[in-house]
User: Fold these one by one.
Assistant:
Number 1:
Amino acid sequence: MSTAPGPVEAPQPTAPPPPPGPGVRPPFAAPPVEGRTARIWIGLGVAGLALVLCCGGGTAAVVGLMVTGTQALNEQARAVVSDYINALKDDKFDEAYALLCDARQRTESEEEFTERVSQEPDIASYTLHDLQLTRDLSLPADVRYANGSQDSVRFLLAQDRRSGELEVCGVAG
């Protein structure tokens, strides 16, 4: 018996099963993990560096403002006390009186001030020190008088509410 070769049927291609649920089937079973932790640490490091730079820059700015503000206040205090002492040295009592704070001017008239300071020893020279920023603003000074004596005094200062300028509010020995 012979079997005659008959036409051979080619197998039919089958379609892949549809993906489960909506969307497209991912090309991988799980996302790749190579370098993922490294990127996280690099990102955290860059964010930390930015935070340090911002905070450090802010801190430096605050410190810089404090230093320059203190220097400016010291310079203004030295200028007003120097003007006050020079006015007393030159017997320009009206100019010295004008440099007094309002509270001091209310307790002593210009005539009383002139009478009082004209009886004090004449100032020959003086040395101003740095402003002391305590509860009250004060500027220490060493004063030498024409009679040869010397004294260490503190000039008490206050800020004028209208002009913002420092004024002499008294002298403490």
Number 2:
Amino acid sequence: MRTTTLLENCHLFAGLEKKELANLAHATSVRRLSRGQMLFMEGDEATGFFVLLDGKVRIFKSSAEGREVIIRLAQSGEIFGEVAMFDGRQYPANCIAQADSVVLFCPRDAFLRLLAKSPAVGLKMIQALCSHLRIMSQLIDNLALKDVSARIAASLIERCRAGGGNIIKLDMTKSEWAKKLGTVGETLSRNLRKLSTAGVIRVERSAIRVLNPAALEMLARGEK
């Protein structure tokens, strides 16, 4: 598939004129990543941002002891790395491919030229930045103000709302889920067993069914 077609199918660039797409396509490049391959590391110079065309990537921070906190799991069609690109500094986190993935790299200079000509693209980028800001705000709130059980309850509630029901499909490993919550897999499993024993949830083969949403809401608020 041509780069111009890939750009047309991306929400950020939808609506651009053919000439603008052609100019942008000339400046961008497509990168293919194997599962487990690093795209960038914390401290690398941020020369541009990325659009995930296919697959899944994990954006995370890690400590010197090897502890990891997942900031975000980017899905197909999402942009990432744009904040560091705007301030011209380094990437503040690491990025690794969760699965075989295809990303589009957009250099900073080319994108800034596009912004000067197409304000609509700027508005879409602002929307994306605001969305990521909300995610970061929630992450800080969870890690700083809630204990592990409350974080797990809040995560279950969030995923129920996103799915529109009381059944949560397990689309990530427990290890990945634990890292996203700032804990470890053993602690996650222990808390899930407690919730199951209390009749709040039922862990099924490839899903979790919420049986008592009110109790889960109370736990997410820190009410035992």
Number 3:
Amino acid sequence: MQSFQRHRDVGLRVLSLTEGETDTVSLMATIACELFHADERFDWLGFYRNVGNETLKIGPYQGGHGCLVIPFSRGICGRCAQTGQTQLIDDVECDSSHIACSATTRSELVIPIYDSTQTLIGVLDIDSDRQAAFDQVDADELQQLMDAVFRKI
């Protein structure tokens, strides 16, 4: 947590609230709530869970509705799950793979989530109605937070 700058306060809250918890859905629900309410740039924030067969299904989230099912072969979340690489998209309208769950989304940050065995649990998806709302600091710090929480289970 010492390398956190922008997300330090919410990161400390998340770590405190999730300490000792091993249930993935409980962790996701708590994180979604805390992160969503911590940053005005976040218009939708949630998890898509890896349910096998190269398929993501919606998990705990905050904001309007999300897509229920996303194959690894479709969308920015699918690409993140397939490649294991964070997706930092400044303008979703310029990304032909973007799945428009909301007509107002302009930028997106998707972070892969792994457990202690390096198994993909799912992805953290953050949408903003602002173009270029996220940067590499957001990506790096939120990845560190997800690793700190989920790599313990």
Number 4:
Amino acid sequence: MTGTTQCCRSCGAVLKDVFVDLGMSPVSNHLVLPDKLLSYDPFFPLKTLVCGSCFLVQTIDVLDPDDHFHGDYVYFSSASAGWVEHARQFAEKLIAREKLGPKSLVVEVASNDGYLLQHFRTQGIPALGVDPAANCAAAAMKTYGVETEVAFFGRETAERLVARGKKADLTAANNVLAHVPDLNDFVSGFKTLLEPEGISSFEFPHLLRMIEGNQFDTIYHEHYSYLSLTALEPLFRRNGLRPFDVEEIPTHGGSLRLFVCHDASKRQDTPALQAVADRERAAGLNTMAAYTGFREKVLETKRSLLSLLIDLKRQGKRIAGYGAPAKGNTLLNFCGIGTDFIDYTVDRAESKQGRYLPGSRLPVYAPDYILNDKPDYVLILPWNIRDEVMAQMSAIRGWGGKFIVPIPRPEIV
């Protein structure tokens, strides 16, 4: 634990307003190995505050990034076929839009196992990944031939790459901005790395959709910030960059794909950018009023989910989980759900199989385990890919099995 953050990690203002407090929770991606099953899971406060100056929502207590992104990082992006397809469509769109070719350079920050950059390489476009997890970087090289710099990204890493002749026409940073403790250092790295008319793409879950969709389980220690255009525009401006375009995309329950360029770029702001800014303003994200009341919605979801599970268990029903995502661990631990309610969970990622979820200690098996065990209900923890999961596990209907989706409100599907 590095201590308590008392000032906004974007603008430096003193933090004093609580967004939501989820109590004590273990680190969501620290799955437990069998030989550590009797050891103690460290729990840390999971509390978020909102900055009264720039309206950035952020965790108050943080862990050192090395505690999250180490050589045994268990999340591999290629495990989700839907996410790989999402990456392919992004690559094709940007290749055409920016007229990328053999003389271009695409750099992805938090490139994981090469899930995205493979699509540029197959089109003959030079690509470089940057990722702090050595095991993910090794997988990217072995599986897709994607060269990866093993490092945390920021001003220093960017300067080192530029000194080696690496200037990017396109940078991508998908679902990483929320994972960054030093936002200004991180963002300034893109200013250094970008060609004069290059662009950076940032994808992140949209705070507005979190509030509207009651997506509190996306809060966990690995996520330091919860993002909106309202909060990000001054951050980028402070570091010599400016947003000029945005897309609203369905991933992770509703995300923004924000395009950023140098302040001096000739690129014009798009109507889409203004539309999102207007929506956020209409929702009150530039006032403290929008952030109050979220706690009660969260508590009601907890009560409703526990009530549903208690009723099913009293009927003698057997319940399994699907997935071992970080958001699922927030949900399980906040609601106090363990093997008293759910027998086990399954996940397609081999790196998670054979381990146990932190806190709840649910064992993680391969998806076929459900097909052999035939539980009555399957709780979908990665609710953001519910359709993909239900298609993969459609065989459960053969024995009368049903799905439970917990967010935005618990329901049997």
